[in-house]
Predict the 3D structure of the following.
Amino acid sequence: MPVARPETSDARVIAHVDMDCFYVQVEQRKQPELRGLPTAVVQYNEWQGGGLIAVSYEARKCGVKRSMRGDEAKTACPQIQLVQVPVARGKADLNLYRSAGSEVVSILAKSGKCERASIDEVYLDLTDAAESMLADAPPESLELIDEEVLKSHILGMSREDGDDFKESVRDWICRKDADRRDKLLSCGIIIVAELRKQVLKETEFTCSAGIAHNKMLAKLASGMNKPAQQTVVPYSAVQELLSSLPIKKMKQLGGKLGTSLQTDLGIETVGDLLQFSETKLQEHYGVNTGTWLWNIARGISGEEVQGRLLPKSHGSGKTFPGPRALKLLSTVQHWLNQLSEELSERLSSDLEQNKRIASTLTLHASAFKSRDSDSHKKFPSKSCPLRYGVTKIQEDAFNLFQAALREYMGPFGSKPQGNKQETWRITGLSVSASKIVDIPSGTSSIMRYFQSESTVPSRSAYGCVQDHVAMTPSASEGCSEQISTETQAAMPEEDTDVTYTLPNFENPDKDNDLVFGKDVVSCQSNEATDVSTQSESNKGTQTKRIGRKMNNSKEKNRGMPSIVDIFKNYNATPPSKQETQEDSTVSSTSKKAKFSSSSHNSQVNQEVEERTETDWGYKTDEIDQSVFDELPVEIQRELRSFLRPNKQFNAGKSKGDGSTSSIAHYFPPLNR
Ligand code: TTP
């Protein structure tokens, strides 16, 4: 079967760097006496010794696995050292690990475009650095090649029996007759080995890396030889690698799609996908996913490394498994308050350190009903515009929860149906903040405003949120529930030592503390910005938006942006005509890769979707200035002063033209 060659990505050099048993290394740096010993990090709860979340390679040799609990691990490896995750607000506190991850990122970011993919993973685009090396000091000209480079695993490298491994690697790297793509990869191998040594020297952490022509292959390779090693995928080795790669091991195929490929198409390995035409795959899975599958079978991925050193979202979550499931609104509210407090703290430091604000608050939960024929019904995720301030986040999170609960329980709510009492149990809760943008320069007092908002509650903790998180009629009822639950807010005993949290590992932003599975990710993509819920008063015939200002002029203002939306959508450099033209002239293969990547991701990965959103600018008339009322007077004045010069400009330039000016014209360019 002919294999289409990627035209755009095969001359790139991409690395995926993954820290080895990361939390264990962080703990071992803190307690050096643990180095070299079988060690595991456990979640703080005491049930059967807590759940293992990171296991050292010494412990892995004794048969200890991450799925074990502490007691099991001790049975498997009596000498194991168990270290507990730090705890704050009754839940795991991952700040220590987050900042350790940032140390690594700051070292790696010096080498090229760097994307922080999770708490301990980074993608690097080393193409420029590799090209410079190839031009100035190509590998074949080097007299000495570092030992770390010579330990690299090069997939498909031919070696005669008895050949010395390191000599073979040296020969491969220094081949004069290699094609340009492999020569660039050779430079990548040298650069990455040097970076890993630097990380070790400066942080004491070891890491492993994958080096290939695209992100997908680099990520696959980085896990192939661990710890403290690097693996290279030359283009010629791609097919062999994919032909034996179990379909579920591929990123984004670990869930339902992977299962469907196995059961519906009888596919076991990624290479098996080659049997199917693109049309056939599209018939089964839709145009975009079909094309994406066709591409990955050939090792094609158009996904670019994004220059992003900071997380794309912040999240705080907790699970309540088994008997610890929450069953009272008051306990749900208690935990939402804790989670919101942590989230607010992280938002404040992001604002202070990085001058970024988030604009969407999302609530996820996992739940089950005690007596329910529809037991597989998912607890809906809900979002609304994010308001800064602990109390506001707490209020909004709880209101979102109540709106979601009503939808989950259906029209009968928790009222008895026949002689059955419908009850719910919550097994996981998380709040997250997304759609994070830089604050445009020149808005310093706005920043001060947000900063003070994040610490000073603006109103009673249990007041109804109606101005920003506009509620459906049914949701407004929730406010009275809220007040009444406050009066009985004593914590029932079973919920006081609730269990562990897990970071989000399906999501690219896995330094969220908790994820409730892939389905939530897709749920979020449906509902993240504009949750529509059925209005009871309209008996399901009309949908209403949660998250817009509700006041007397609400009809007029429907769809008008909030103040954070303005920042979110603000782009100092709107796409130029030239960029638009370039887009329309890319080659068909690269177009395919691009299209496939972005459209597929809109379903299973939000990254590309978010990238395109920022290319949008507000028009003057689209800015509902009444949203400025959210802000203190001096800030309102500052913002209005941004708008005023433009009006004058428009008036002078061409009458009636103002409605077509983007907000980008009003702000000075960003000083990034
Ligand atoms: P991983 O990179 O998945 O694993 P790891 O770094 O521990 O080990 P490896 O060398 O195999 O890559 O996860 C990074 C950290 O995230 C890990 O050290 C602990 C944490 N983590 C959890 O808290 N819960 C989980 O379920 C997983 C998978 C990881």
User: Anything to note?
Assistant: Residues 329-354 form the longest helix (26 residues). The CA atoms of residues 409 and 649 lie 54 Å apart.
